[in-house]
Amino acid sequence: MADTRSPLQSKTEVLIVGAGAAGSWLARRLAMAGRSVRVLEAGPGWKLDDLASSQIWARRLRWGGPLVETTGRNPFGYGFNAGWGLGGAALHHYGTWLRFDPHDFAMKTRFGRGRDWPFGYETLRPFYDRVQRDVGISGDAGAEVWRPPGDPYPLPALSPTSQGESIARGFRALGEHVAPMPMAILSREYRGRAACLYDGWCDAGCPIGALYNPLVRDIPEARSAGAEFVTGAQVTSLLWDKGAGRIAGALWRERDGGVLHRAEADLVILAASAVHNPALLLNSVSSRWPRGIGNEHDLVGRFFMTHAVLGIYGLMVEETFPHLGVSGAQFSARDDYAKARGDDEAAFGSYHWLIAPAAKPDDLLGIAISRPDVWGAALDPFMKRAARHFASMIAMVEDLPQARNRVMLAEPPRPDSPPSVRIEHAFAPETLAVWSRAKRRGLAVFRAAGANEPWSSGVNTAHMMGGTIIGRDPRDSVANEWGRVHGIPNLFIAGTGLYPAAGALNPTFTLYALAERTAEYLINHWRDHVPSG
Amino acid sequence: MGGSDDRAVPAGWTRRSLIGGGALAFTYLVAGRWRRLTPREARAEGAALRVLSVDDARTLEAAGETLAPGAARAGLVHYLDAQLAAEPAESLLILRYLDVPPPHADFYRSGATALDRLTGGKGGFTALDASARQALIGKLAAGGLGKAWPSSAPPAPLFHFVLRADAVDVLYGTPEGFARLGIDYVPHIEPLRPW
């Protein structure tokens, strides 16, 4: 299970919990800067050639640890959204990489509701630019009339299929803009990586590395620089050094054998998802931290957010080849992204469209599940027609930060056992009003595109944000703008859990921009956090 | 797809290595020999079930066939049984996405038991004719069974949703299923046998 490069008992300079997008990026950057790095990952050690093209086999890439209870009026779909093993959720993410809108950073200031980020878009812009050069994003910045300032994409847009073109026709007929979706998928070879083959298997992980995931570069380069990745290592809690007033490392258990280990480090980064980061903090109780590390103000786990998801579906007259293309989206439409609207006061929050994702016959986002009412003798004729004429698009709707939506422990803390986690979540009425608005408009777009009797999904969830939010005030946030937990010099958090407001745009590009910003900060300010280092 | 591997399981293989090892194949016991088979082949060859009882399997197969005609011969029950025998972290069931508490075998067992209870006891559902099965499955989908559906079983619409999705997986989610729909599978990496 473990690399053998260094004995597990040895202390490292950096300990990272979680080998997903943020953890793997930081591991690479810090290891290449000369720091000794160990990464503990609960799941298995995937390799690119494990990523078989199958919606059924793709399920191995989702969370396989102890059950996470999902409760509340709109339970969050943890099982579908979470990752498991090297690469984390980024291994099965779709590569829809959008920059957050400037309004997403300043919701409270501009609209008097929700929360602000501790900085604005301009602070993060250079990191978006740097990351997109590193990773390679395909898109057409000029066509995205809504896009904030930034460098053009390094690669031309991906090619659309007839599914994308047919839906774009509907938007244009209603006078709305569409633009190629910016994707972390290569439209051409880039820095030694192969271009996309458009076979629509992104959900199962991209084994050729055209879609960026941590197995493509971050993990191999981190290893080459000396970082050690330990798989099957479930961290149970953080170790508090009372005398030094610092984090001393973490306790972890072997997933199969159950043996408890202690991993010491000068600096610890939690990168185990917006759900398991707060859960680990809450499970780390001591006399100094009776409610969990960093939880003096009962904020750890709160302001958990997801996106409200709506599917719009239809059968087009022309053949659409719905199983081909990319799993994320071919086109973007954001004309109605504004958070507040004069013509609909009940609705507050943004949404955007992900147009023409590839849809396979089966699975949660597949053709058959879009019509659960079709079964029996009607199923086969429907499937045969839909396999050639199906079209779909997804509305991603902003969730508002609410303290009552939270990650918590389902059982009393036990620092030597993996935390039992419960998530409570309900959308605000304003969010559901935006969702309903999107439904009306989306069905109109499909009718304008020529779809007969389009239909739609119920309210679903995608992405996880918040729970360990950043802010300037330690009484009103968990971590500072760099992700350092307030009051603790050597504990950082990385990932989407830091977002104090979620926007509606897919969160991964912002995760990477934040991780790059924190990496640069740690490289330049190491001695501020590890005085003896 | 297709073709079976008749190698007997080497001595010393554990259940875990059979299920979760590098080959990632589904392994079934046929007449005392472990063989790698597709669920369809496993059903055709009468492979032993490891988790589901014969009665529950019959009921689930009949319900799945009602939801997605063709799913029975595609090996729905053997697919479910193989996945229920796996470690939860290695399961390929769509239940994994739905945050349903383990053990997942209970989900299927209690659903099958509920169907039979509604239809006169053990074997009741399979004894119904096709139109009666369809009528009951229709009520299941609509949540129209009220208190007749036992609280010990999964919520009726959820059970309908999951079993239909499982049936769709075996019927349409494989290279063979794509061919049935007349579309190319075009894999990056061929799913390891049997899928």
Helix content of chain A: 10-25%
Summing up helix and strand content along with how strands pair, one would put the structural category of chain A as alpha/beta
Determine the N-to-C terminus distance of chain A. 29 Å
Which structural class fits the helix and strand makeup of chain B? mainly alpha
Low-confidence stretches of chain B: 1-25
Low-confidence stretches of chain A: 1-7
- Note the run of SSEs of chain A as H and E: EHEEHHHHHEHEEEEHEEEHHEEEHEEEHH
Q: Proportion of β residues of chain A? A: 15-25%
Feature tags:
heterodimer, A: 533 residues, alpha/beta, seven-stranded antiparallel β-sheet, 13 helices, 17 strands, B: 195 residues, mainly alpha, two-stranded antiparallel sheet, 9 helices, 2 strands
Give a written overview of the molecule.
The complex is a heterodimer of chains A (533) and B (195). With 533 residues, chain A is an alpha/beta fold. Chain A has 13 helices and 17 strands. Chain A has helices at 21-32, 78-81, 102-105, 107-111, 121-135, 162-173, 218-224, 273-283, 367-370, 379-389, 429-448, 508-524, 526-529, and strands spanning 12-17, 37-41, 68-71, 179-180, 228-231, 233-241, 246-254, 260-270, 305-315, 331-333, 351-355, 390-398, 406-409, 421-424, 452-456, 460-465, 491-493. In chain A, helix 5 (121-135) packs across helix 12 and helix 6 crosses helix 11. Chain B is mainly alpha-helical. Chain B has a two-stranded antiparallel ribbon. In chain B, a hairpin with a 2-residue loop joins strand 1 (27-30) and strand 2. The longest helix of chain B has 17 residues, at 156-172. Chains A and B meet through strand 3, helix 2 and helix 10 of A and helix 7, helix 8 and helix 9 of B.
